[in-house]
Amino acid sequence: MNSSRISSQGMLLALLSVIVPLVLTFAGGWLLTTYVANERLHTLAQIASQRASATFEQASQTLKNVALTDLQPCTPESIEQMRMIAMNTFSVESVGYEEDVFACTSWGATSPRATKWPEDFVTEDGVKVSIEAYDDNPLIKPMLALQFAAFNVLVDPEQFREVDLDEGIKLAVGTRQGRLLGPARPNMASFLALVHQGPTHGLKDGFLYTSAAQGNFTVIAAIPRQELLRSLWKHVLYLLPVGLIVSAALLLANLRWWRRKLSPLNALEQAVRRNEFLVHYQPIIEIETHRCIGAEALVRWQKTDGTIVYPDHFIPLAESSGLIEGITNQVIQTVLNDLGTILASDRSMHVALNLAAADVCTGHFLPKLLEEVQRLDVLPGQIWLEVTERSLLDPAPAKITIERARNAGFIIALDDFGTGYSSLQYLQQLPLDALKIDRSFVEQVGAATEKTLLVTHVIQMGRALELTLIAEGVETTGQLDYLRANQVRYAQGWLFAKAMDCAQFKKLYWASRPLALRHSDDVNVSS
Ligand code: C2E
Ligand code: MG
Ligand code: MG
């Protein structure tokens, strides 16, 4: 994943880290608000329905008691008694008696009403109920009338709703059949109809409502949206600190993820996983014949955006992070895929592989290398393994690996010779085959006499140890002449060629071969 993609992903995650907790805070606030409101509405509806049921029961009982007494209808004494009953019964406004011929109420004698009260329902014990009983006097508001035999009692519908209401909550009482008691209130009649048909609670027309039924009545308690929003803000403010803490924690985690993703180590891990390494080859020249006799394989990391990273910039990190083994294996695979056929067809050619300290220490690369040379019919002697003095710091395991590799037939070369601290005595004990004279020494050739002497000493030392000598970093003909005069066998450097890709190297290699050999191997090269 390239860095701009990681950045845009990080930005998206950062945005989500802020938005998601905030949305959840609001969602949580809304759930809390509706939960609290529902609980309040439910309690109120319960209390109001119990109240309505109790009021009705009291009025109904009073009516039946009056009807069962042997009261002489509409005498001054019975009217007085009816008045006393009305005054002493909380729920009852008036007691009445009505027959075809005469009628009276607890307020005095009247005449029978011209129109009968419409009957809404009859209770199980035979009480007829009219929810909008109009007296003939238009100034008196509609009452709830209960009739039993010739007696009736009137109840003010407001009595059914006498519950202390919290601010903003609306209450409506209706019959089980869905008719509203008392004056119509906005929305409440439609809620009553809704409840009568099905859901006992919910959100509708900007109200949260709930209902409770008891006896002959249903009570609806509802709270408008504005009230809900007011308490939503209150609950959101409660929850906001939690939301902000979660958001900050997510942002922090996101930041750490982002930094990790953009870290060089992560990029290198990805590169190893995706095999983003390629190998360039720097020709090695036999000084005497001027022929190319092989190459040093130098790894490059080609990033997804095409940029090339040189080994000095990632090998140290790969070594310290343990990723180097994966890289070494990929280099082995690539080199043998690239040059396996030529190596198998020209036994005089060799290729040099660089090993890291960890490779030399563990020797884990060896089975893979052996498998590859066998598969491609390459002789182990055609593979040179370059170890640096740094990789010999842990001498015991290094010696084991070098001996194993050498026993398998591989050639061991000491790279960058002279830049480390290995004692001569120690070098003498190691089973080495070749010595690569470091560029820093070759650079001295042609400089002040004492410095040139140093190069001469290094060359003499290599010879004394009976090692094949290869000079690195040869850039001038003067250096080449000097090396030739001092019998250094091989040279490598920009004087001949820089490191190049496989196709270019093959071209250069075949160009320096004798004609007969070139011809016979052309088939192999193109394969
Ligand atoms: P090295 O093994 O000493 O490789 C020689 C380095 O010197 C190469 O640099 C090469 O391009 C450069 N060089 C060659 N001729 C000249 C010259 O005439 N003048 C100058 N100025 N430079 C020259 P490169 O490719 O950047 O590699 C640097 C180092 O990275 C190598 O030094 C080697 O230690 C390490 N390396 C390269 N490939 C691998 C690999 O596959 N595995 C491991 N573990 N290390 C590698
Ligand atoms: Mg090398
Ligand atoms: Mg070197």
UniProtKB/TrEMBL annotation:
It comes from Pseudomonas shahriarae. It is a multi-pass membrane protein. The chain crosses the membrane at residues 12-32, 236-255. Gene3D superfamilies: EAL domain. PROSITE patterns: EAL. The keyword Transmembrane applies. SUPFAM superfamilies: EAL domain-like. GO terms for cellular component: plasma membrane. Pfam families: CSS-motif, EAL. Its main location: membrane. This is cyclic-guanylate-specific phosphodiesterase. InterPro entries: CSS-motif_dom, Cyclic-di-GMP_PDE-like, EAL_dom, EAL_sf. The keyword Ribonucleoprotein does not apply.
